[in-house]
Amino acid sequence: MSHFYDKRTGELIDGGLREARKLGGMALPSPTTVLGILGSFGLKEYFRRQMFEATATTARQPNWTDDEYYAAITKYADEHGQAARDKGGDFHSLVQRFHERCMKCDKPYAYASCGDVSGQLTPQFNAYAEWYFKNVRRSLMVEQAVIGQGYAGRVDHVAEMMDGRVLCLDVKTQDTTKKKGKFTYYDQWPIQLAAYAGACKIPIHGLMSIAVSSNLPAVVETKLWERDWEYYHDIFMGLLKFWKHSNSYFPE
Asked: Is the dihedral of CA 224, 136, 155, 44 positive or negative?
């Protein structure tokens, strides 16, 4: 789904490209919208795995037609996929509230005030909060609207680390049950982070993806992307140029 932001206010605009055109270039595409031209290998692989697991766990009844068996498999995949997306979305919202509270008060108080942690997410939240206390000195930006050169969006998290570096951060949840406990880091992640870094008004020293296992035991792993953020930002700007050409829409 495409997202556009008003370049004057940074607010999200209802509707897709058709509505954006009506604003005469005032609507800017989000980084995720621009990256959508690449397709998402991770998303495709996720859906393939969902269908595979659904086929492996859904027994075909003797009286079922092929269409009925297909309907049963897709129902299983949809239900389990939605449950995973809901859990990931809930965790993202929880982490956002945690970051916001850390900006307003001492970190231990922010941790204690997150009393709305559901039992299902408690292990993941505890693991993330422990990582945060050890590595982050302070949060600087949380879910803040940023406007870049021809694009706009909301940056999840910018923080000063204990070593003084200011990093653009993003938290991802993954089920590592079927991957021997290993996380998968996708090439699009640093490009998206770099888009936000390029739109921030404060100096950014690097990009970091934070992976949290949605399964137990809860594990937190980080990847500091090895190249300067400007390298990934150049890639994004090239993709933005192609996106504009492909859609015949040229906001600045």
From this structure: positive
Residue 142 · residue 94 · CB < 8 Å: no
CB 143 within 8 A of CB 154: yes
The secondary element (H helix, E strand) that includes residue 147 is strand 136-147
pLDDT per position as a tens digit, 86-135: 555 788 999 998 999 888 776 655 555 555 555 688 899 999 999 999 99
Distance CA 106, CA 122 (A): 21
Which residues of the chain fall below pLDDT 70?
1, 40-50, 77-88, 106-119
Distance CA 33, CA 30 (A): 5
Burial 12-51 (b: 16+ CB within 10 A, else e): ebeeeeeebbebeeebbbbbebbbbeeeeebeeebeeebe
In the block, which residue shows the tokens 């932001």?
5
Q: Which two tokens stand for residue 156?
A: 């999840």
pTM, rounded to two decimals: 0.81
Query: What are the phi and psi torsion angles at 217 (to 5°)?
Result: -70, 150
CATH of segment(s) 4-247: 3.90.320
Place of tokens 């400007």: 230
Per-residue model confidence (pLDDT) at position 44:
62
Instruction: Give residue limits of the domains in the chain.
Output: 4-247
| Nearest residue to 206 (alpha-carbon basis) of 221, 189, 190, 185 | 190
Peptide bond into 217 cis (omega under 30): yes
Q: Which two tokens stand for residue 153?
A: 């969006």
